[in-house]
Amino acid sequence: MNNKIVIALGGNAIQTDDGSAEAQRNAIRETMQTLKPLFKTDTDIVISHGNGPQIGNMLIQQSVADSEQTPAMPLDVCGSMTQGMIGFWLETEINRILTEIESERRAGTIITRVEVDPEDPRMSTPTKPIGPFYDKAEVEALQKENPDSVYKEDSGRGYRKVVPSPLPVSILEHKLISDLVEDKNIIIACGGGGIPVVKQHNTYEGVEAVIDKDFASEKLAQLIDADTLMILTNVENVYVNFNEPNQQKLTDVDVATLKDYIDQGTFKEGSMLPKIEAAIDFLESGYGQRVIITNLTNAYEALEGKVGTQIKR
C-alpha cells in the first residue's frame, strides 16, 4: 500500500439532485463508506474535493438575499464557506468510521488558500461560469453597478458571470497539512480548488477566481511529497475516443503516450484534459511516483493496481 496519497474527489461524490444538507451529507456518508478499506491501512491520506454545485447554490442565495442589511459576500468568502461546510460533513463521516473501526486516527479540515500569479494570462481571460443565470436586462443592470464584471451567454439558458481560472503557484497551508498528516491525521484540504489569493506586501488577499480542483490537488501532492495522486471521477478508466464505437480503455500508460494523445486532441477541455494535464505535471515534477484515474467504486482496488488507469513516468 502507498505511503502517502492525495485523493481528489469528483463532484459526483457529493452532488445529488436534492440540494438539502441532509441529502448531501447522506451522499458523503456513502462516499466515505466506499473509502473505508483505505482508512483501515496506515497510508497517509489527504482528501480534496470539488464544490461546484455548492458554491453555485451559495452564490444564488447571496444574490437573492443581497440588501443593505445583508450584503452579498464575494466569491473568495463564499469559497471559504463551502470549504467549511463540505469539510464539516466529510470529517464527521470519516471520524465516525474511524471510531467504528477502533482506529486512533482522526480527520480534520484545513481551510486552504492557494496562491496564484496576478500576471497569469488566465487572470485576464475569464472563462469559468459561476452562480445564477440572468436575462439580458439583468446583466445590463449588473454591469452598470460593476463595469469590470464579465457575463457570457451559456448554452441558450441565459447569461452567467464568468471569472478567471488561474493555475496554482503554491498552497499556503501545505506545511501545516504535511505536519498533521505525518501525525497520521486524515486531512481534508484544497476544497473547491482552494481560495485563490495573491501576495500583497506582507499578506495575501483573496481574488475573484476559481482554481481547478485537480490542478490544486496536484500542487498539494507535490508540496507534501505524496507518492500517489488519485483523481476520482465518474468513469472507471481514461478512454481514447470516449463514447465512440472505437473507444479504447487505457490501463497502464506513461507520460509520453499521454502527451501524444493531447497533441492529437484526444481529451476534451473541461472534462478529462485537465485531469491528464494535472497527472503529467505531478509526475514530471519529480515528486510523484504514480497517478490513478478511476471512479469511486474502484478506488481501493485501483490503489492495489488492479483496475483504473495507472499512469507512471
TrEMBL record:
Domain Aspartate/glutamate/uridylate kinase as annotated: residue spans: 3-295
Compartments reported by the entry: Cytoplasm
Pathway assigned in UniProt: Metabolic intermediate metabolism; carbamoyl phosphate degradation; CO(2) and NH(3) from carbamoyl phosphate: step 1/1
Biological process, per Gene Ontology: L-arginine deiminase pathway
UniProt entry keywords in alphabetical sequence: Arginine metabolism, ATP-binding, Cytoplasm, Kinase, Nucleotide-binding, Transferase
Source organism superkingdom: Bacteria
Organism name: Staphylococcus auricularis
Catalysis: reaction(s): hydrogencarbonate + NH4(+) + ATP = carbamoyl phosphate + ADP + H2O + H(+)
Protein's gene: arcC
GO function terms (MF aspect): ATP binding; carbamate kinase activity
NCBIfam families linked to this entry: arcC (TIGR00746), PRK12352.1 (NF009007)
Family (UniProt): Belongs to the carbamate kinase family.
InterPro entries linked to this entry: AceGlu_kinase-like_sf, Asp/Glu/Uridylate_kinase, Carb_kinase
Protein name: Carbamate kinase
CC per GO annotation: cytosol
Classification via Pfam families: AA_kinase
Main location (coarse class): cytoplasm
